[in-house]
């Protein structure tokens, strides 16, 4: 979680979901600054297991799926780049796609940018149509007034 305190404080919280339950239980929490190493264990195999090494602790983790592990690594890497200025953790034994430019964050940002551009274009087009409709309405109003004046004279 990231707070709006200055400077920003990011933490890593380990949660567990017990079988048959829909809720999560908080297990442990560390400050992002304490993270020293992220170990994906095997870059050649999709597995949900990974290790995190903190200043004073070593912790084994298991994500729900290998895909969720990949997403977690991408978010964690991005968060470290953004909030840590001094000691950034080392990412080892991680698949190259995790640190690459095609991360889920970039894809999400591109999707949002694309959606905003499409919405903006649609609004502009709608604004142009409304402008044309207003012009047509003004023309019809003038035409109706001229017709009424002509009819009144007759």
UniProtKB/TrEMBL annotation:
Region (Disordered): 128-154
Gene: Stxbp6
GO BP term, pick one: Golgi to plasma membrane transport
Protein keywords: Coiled coil
SMART domains named among the record's database cross-references: Sec3-PIP2_bind
Keyword hit for Coiled coil: yes
Basic and acidic residues bias spans: 128-141
GO cellular component: exocyst; plasma membrane
Taxonomy, superkingdom: Eukaryota
InterPro entries: Sec3-PIP2_bind (IPR028258), V_SNARE_CC (IPR042855)
Residues in coiled coil: none
Record PROSITE patterns: V_SNARE
Gene Ontology MF terms in the entry: phosphatidylinositol-4,5-bisphosphate binding
Organism: Caloenas nicobarica
Domain V-SNARE coiled-coil homology: residue ranges: 101-154
Keyword Cytoplasm included in the entry's annotation: no
Designated name of the protein: STXB6 protein
